[in-house]
Amino acid sequence: MSLSKKTWLLILAFFCIYVFWGSTFLWNKMAVLELEPFFLASIRFTFASIIIFIIAKSLGYSLAITRKQLLNCVLAGFLFLAYGNGVFVWALKWVDSGFASLLAALQPLIILLMMRIIQRKKLQWKSMVGVALGFVGMYLLVSQNDIIAKEGMVIGIVMIFSCLIAWCSGSLFVAAADLPSNFFVTTAYQMLTAGFILILGSLAFGETWKSPLNWETQTQISLICLILFGSIAAFTSFNYLLKNVSPEKVSTSSFVNPVIAILLGWHFLNEELSIQTGIAALLLLTGVYFINSRKRTKDDVVPPKRA
Q1: What is the pLDDT of residues 15-59, one digit of tens each?
Q2: So where are the chain's domains?
Q3: How far is residue 245's CA from residue 117's CA, in Å, rounded to a whole number?
Q4: By the 8 A CB rule, do 26 and 268 touch?
Q5: Do 88 and 25 contact (CB within 8 A), yes or no?
Q6: C-alpha torsion 141→286→265→100, nearest 10
Q7: Which three-class secondary structure state does DSSP give residue 49?
Q8: How far apart are alpha carbons 191 and 176 in whole angstroms?
Q9: pTM for the whole structure
Q10: pLDDT digit string (tens) for 205-229?
Q11: What is the C-alpha separation between 67 and 73, in angstroms, rounded?
Q12: Could you say which DSSP state residue 34 is in?
């Protein structure tokens, strides 16, 4: 029996959020080995926003936006992409891509704790189990002497945690913010904002700008993949899935992405995978599973992914 068109679209969309988003850690790591981090991120989001604007216009979507919506897009773009992603890419100069993906998997745990602290939400038993496993896994992950001893590793880990807080803060903000009704258009404005902020950040930190014509082939391919697959295909798929399947199923990407990232980093970049890291990964991802499988309430939000 042949599969329906919608079924094929769902399969393709899940492939995008599983594999493409899991691959962004590798692509960013490969590109940041040659390019300055804020310069890299600014190009990615600026070009991605232009392409999305063109697609949105060709599909007949209105690009109109109110002053309040624009200001909200600016704030969301800063929290999610300019800081949340731009600083994360900066941290990848010192942190392995697979290791970074495991830290990023803590996002559901952090947003749960923020909802508890800020919104006074009670923790369900599954959430408490998930939080406990997450903290144990996080301790095992960051307490390895051979990892902590690496130059720049500690500051890289600290900055990644600050990125997680920015992503989660953005998630709580966007859940109640006035934004354009079309999420495709909202994404374009957020990416354009992030691109502009990152350009200013790159100039402020005196980063060296390098012509794309002089980039290594590996870097050129990585940036193209980040723009087309990581920023456009995956994010569009994410929004499509949110409208067609349950949030719980969409959130499974939280524990699939790190697996993809670890395997790609190990294969292409020869990143080491110790037994302790493996145990930490198992605990972290099990914790994420418990958090994502808890009973949902109407006020729950699904944190937007790293576009």
Answers
A1: 999 999 999 999 999 999 999 999 999 999 999 999 999 999 999
A2: 12-292
A3: 29
A4: yes
A5: no
A6: -50
A7: helix
A8: 19
A9: 0.87
A10: 999 999 999 999 999 999 999 999 9
A11: 10
A12: T
